[in-house]
Design goal:
309 residues; alpha/beta; two-stranded antiparallel ribbon; 16% strand; binds zinc ion
Length: 309
């Protein structure tokens, strides 16, 4: 069965101030990489034409959703925090990014594809229930997980996050929810400052902070010693990957030393767990990754592995 790729020109229309790393060119680089004939077998779909505030409310309160919607500028930018801004199309792009994740869940749960990658922006894992942060507006992974539960009767969902930054937003959303596991590798110390191993939620949170300079060996060790055993014990029916590629050695925002092959290996290990426990079902959502070449190469390695079912 196929791998689904969800992408859409709307995600280029979430604009950011000059010099901002989370820029539309990220998706153009990914699009170029996935245009190679090696990816001809991907099932490609555009994002749904509109997002749904009802699904955003799976992770956010109504006042926060309204605040984002109502603060979109007619032109220029609205600044939400030091590094998170709204442009005229940001609300539409962000709601359609969440809708893309929901659509990917529907496709994978419906059995028409084995797994899915959503090349969307803005990213989501820093967005808290009532707070935009770190380039993120809506917690796409949490919205996808709760949609799987409500629309498809899924019991347990595991979210595995290998972005170099800790997904404080995802963690905050699921902190007291024993039906969703959140597991993260990330550099520490680094923005946003959360993600200590002692942060365990209700036993559903697994954080493995990595020291600056750590590379593929430490990443694999974190997966095999803590994260995968936690996921296996949890026995999820669906795995969601918060796929950020900013732990790559070329990335300008952090100091880990992952390579493309490390992302391919991690993807394969998560697929093996999904094969055994989750009917092979995986949804992968783009988070960070700011060096265009390493982002494109790493996404290509990740998606090529997802296609090798
Ligand atoms: Zn990141």
């Amino acid at each position: 069965m196929a791998t689904l790729l969800v992408s859409d020109p709307i995600f280029l229309e979430h604009l950011v101030p000059p010099g901002h790393p989370e820029r539309p060119d990220r998706l153009r680089a990914i699009d170029r990489a996935l245009s190679d004939e090696a990816f001809a077998a991907l099932e490609r779909r555009a994002a749904p034409a509109a997002g749904s505030e009802e699904t955003l409310a799976f992770a956010h309160d109504q006042r926060y959703i309204a605040l984002i919607r109502d603060n979109v500028p007619a032109q220029g930018f609205t600044r939400l925090d030091a590094d998170t801004t709204l442009s005229p199309k940001s609300y539409v792009a962000a709601t359609r990014a969440a809708a893309a994740a929901v659509m990917a869940v529907d496709a994978v749960m419906g059995g028409s594809v084995t797994n899915a990658f959503c090349a969307t922006r803005p990213p989501g894992h820093h967005a808290e229930p009532t707070q935009a942060m770190g380039f993120c507006l809506f917690a796409n992974a949490v919205i996808a997980a709760r949609h799987a539960q409500r629309a498809h009767g899924v019991g347990r969902v595991a979210i595995v996050d290998f972005d170099v930054h800790h997904g404080n937003g995802t963690q905050a959303c699921v902190w007291s929810d024993p039906t969703i596991l959140y597991a993260s590798t990330h550099q520490m110390p680094l923005y946003p400052g959360t993600g200590a191993a002692s942060e365990r939620g209700v036993g559903n949170v697994f954080n493995v902070p990595l020291a600056p300079g750590a590379g593929g060996v430490e990443f694999t060790e974190a997966l095999t010693s803590v994260i995968l055993p936690g996921v296996v014990t949890f026995a999820p029916e669906l795995i969601i990957i918060s796929a950020g590629f900013d732990a790559h050695w070329r990335d300008p925002l952090a100091s880990l030393n992952f390579e493309e092959e490390d992302y391919a290996l991690a993807t394969r290990m998560l697929m093996d767990v999904a094969d055994r426990h989750a009917g092979s079902r995986i949804i992968s959502l783009l988070e960070g990754g700011y060096d265009l070449q390493s982002l494109a190469d790493s996404v290509a390695a990740h998606v090529k592995t997802l296609m090798s079912v």
